[in-house]
Design brief:
There is one protein chain. By secondary structure, the protein is an alpha/beta fold. Strands 1-2-3 form a 3-stranded parallel beta sheet, covered by helices on one side. It is 39% helix and 15% strand.
Length: 71
């Protein structure tokens, strides 16, 4: 479709850490294999960036922070 792909990061660590082995490792490996296909990741907080960057091996410069809420 030749369009940018953005993925929001919010709570995946809780889901993935709740899986039993070998499913946790398999799921993380499958997500890591697709990281290169995503143009930008969106995190809902600065706190979450290093967590997901480390877990899914996403370069931190490919994650933007867009806080939840309305000013």
């Amino acid at each position: 479709m030749n369009r940018p792909i953005c993925c929001t990061l919010q709570g995946e660590d809780l889901f993935l850490n709740g899986l039993v082995e070998p499913y946790r490792t398999r799921a993380i490996d499958m997500i890591r294999a697709q990281v290169r296909d995503v143009d930008r990741f969106i995190s809902v907080s600065d706190y979450y960036v290093p967590i997901m960057s480390d877990m899914l091996r996403i370069p931190k410069d490919r994650i933007s922070v867009v806080p939840l809420g309305i000013k």
